[in-house]
Amino acid sequence: MVTKGAAPMPVTVIGGFLGAGKTTLVNHILSGDHGLKVAVLVNDFGAINIDAALITSIEGGLYSLSNGCVCCGLNQGFVEQLEELLAARADIDHIVIEASGVADPARIMDTVRYSRFASRLRADAIVVVVDAAGFDEAIAAAPGLAEAQIGSADLLILNKTDLVGREQLDAWRARWTFPDTRIVETMNALVPFDILFAGEISPRRVASSFVAEPVHEQAVSAIWRSEGTVDLKRLQKVLAGLPTAVFRAKGFLRANDGRCFAVHLVGTRLSFEQLAKALEGLDADNILVLIGFGERPPFESILAQLDGCAEPAAPAAKGTA
Ligand SMILES: Nc1nc2c(ncn2[C@@H]2O[C@H](COP(=O)(O)OP(=O)(O)OP(=O)(O)O)[C@@H](O)[C@H]2O)c(=O)[nH]1
Predict the structure, then answer these.
(1) Residue 71 has pLDDT above 90, yes or no
(2) Atom 9 (ligand 1): residue with closest C-alpha?
(3) Domains 9-215 and 219-311 share a fold
(4) Domain ranges for the chain
(5) Domain CobW C-terminal spans what residues (predicted)?
(6) Ligand 1 atom showing the smallest separation from residue 54 Cα
(7) Is 90 exceeded by the pLDDT of residue 167?
(8) If one looks up domain 219-311 in CATH, what number appears?
(9) Closest C-alpha to ligand 1, atom 5
């Protein structure tokens, strides 16, 4: 229970387009030395919460919100989750909500500001992560959404600075930012905690001219699952050849050489990140979530191609009696 008279719990909403680095930032927060007990609510798009599985430390508490996007439609489940968190975790200092990559973070913060939470939650900041190398691709994939996301930011994290030059970063800043928006440039979303949590982020004063289009309602997803292992080279080829209508793919694979990987496709950039061991708690050996926009991408044929990369586990040897 929240103690009567206790200060309202600060809430940070982390937004930003698909693949910008939000989960990377959450991992930085959860493994960081900031002296705060942070509870994280993760809202992934699609039926499986891959982001929750990608989060490596759960010291403060991790809560998965995967029943669709919490910024739109009926968000009663989200309200209930906040209520549960407040009731059960009186020892936490800060709540961080990772929005899905197709969400409008401002709408999520609107829920935090509901009158029922007035004495218990405090909207601290909307932090929006930007893929400095992929912002144009994001705009092309879902016109209106990425602009609206940055337009609601109290703090912008211009991430993936390792992939672009100074000139491109300066051009981005000149094109997209508002005079009173604070920007931190990062690699792997390593934003200093004294900026994130020290109450230094002042709310934006100048209203954004970007208006959110309801494009998140046009986002579609498919899930591929298989048991056994996969032929990595073949799978790499399939993912590298996906139509541009599929903007994001993420998941986990077991290769036929025994290695396990987290897989990320963001726009046209594909990466395989080797894991120390296979993840537990997933409902298949190999899982990929594919997210796209617009005309429904040809998911059936993509899933069939992925099936062609699977190498099912050999059946257990039968006795000879
Ligand atoms: N090169 C580079 N890659 C990065 C950086 N930050 C994150 N990534 C990679 O970008 C990919 C997507 O990162 P995530 O943190 O999963 O992105 P996200 O915003 O949570 O993605 P969604 O939840 O799908 O919207 C992963 O492969 C990360 O390792 C960075 O600064 N530089």
Answers:
(1) no
(2) 21
(3) no
(4) 9-215, 219-311
(5) 219-310
(6) 16
(7) yes
(8) 3.30.1220.10
(9) 188
CA of 175 to the centre of ligand 1 (A): 23
Edge-to-edge order in the sheet of strand 220-226: 220-226, 286-292, 246-254, 260-266, 269-275
308 closest CA partner among 214, 218, 220, 235: 235
Task: Quickly tell me which residue has 């061991």 as its tokens.
Answer: 277
Residue ranges around ligand 1 (CB below 6 Å): 16, 18-24, 51, 101, 159-160, 162-163, 187-189, 248, 250, 264, 266, 271
Q: Say if residue 61's pLDDT is above 70.
A: no
Look up tokens 């705060």; give the residue: 36
CATH code for residues 9-215: 3.40.50.300
Residue-averaged pLDDT of the chain: 84
CA angle 282, 288, 293 (to 5 degrees): 135
Which of 14, 17, 23 to mutate to test ligand 1, by most ligand atoms within 8 A of the CB atom?
23
